[in-house]
Design brief:
By secondary structure, the protein is mainly alpha-helical. Helices cover about 85% and strands about 0% of the residues. It has 2 domains: about 80 residues; about 50 residues, no CATH class. The longest helix is centred in the middle third of the chain and has 52 residues. The two termini are about 35 Å apart.
Length: about 140
């Protein structure tokens, strides 16, 4: 979309430059030549106005796209803050682990982790205690 804005801007710059070149010629011209230059200027003026409208529309579309991206980022960040991930099998570790180990090893690890968590819960540890412990033993970076 930014490329579209750039393309339209370059076309607009060219049209305006062409108009600036013709203006002094129009002033000096007489008769049919003056009329011919006037027609060219009218055509260029129309092109310039169309390009301005296109540029305005493209910029508005770009702004909407950026606003949507920002809103999406803010909402997902707020969701992470409001609803912190407490299920280690679905945490942010998952995508990183899937890329580092094969699928079978990953499955064995998550199953073992589920078993370990179940054992701790059976021993009377609360979920918050387990999470606090995990946060201490697993580095955040």
């Amino acid at each position: 979309m930014a490329n579209e804005v750039t393309k339209i801007g370059k076309k607009l710059d060219k049209v305006v430059a062409d108009m600036k070149k013709l203006a002094p010629k129009y002033v000096k011209a007489t008769g049919d030549k003056k009329q011919e230059i006037l027609e060219k200027l009218k055509k260029l003026t129309s092109e310039r106005d169309d390009l301005k409208n296109q540029l305005s529309s493209a910029v508005n579309d770009l702004e909407k796209s950026v606003k949507l991206q920002i809103e999406s980022f803010v909402n997902s960040t707020l969701d992470e803050i409001r609803f912190p991930q407490t299920d280690f099998t679905r945490s942010q570790l998952v995508p990183r682990m899937e890329g580092m180990v094969d699928r079978q090893t990953y499955k064995r690890f998550t199953d073992s982790l589920d078993d370990l968590l179940d054992d701790w819960y059976m021993e009377g540890f609360e979920k918050d205690d387990v999470l606090a412990f995990m946060k201490v033993i697993i580095p955040s970076s």
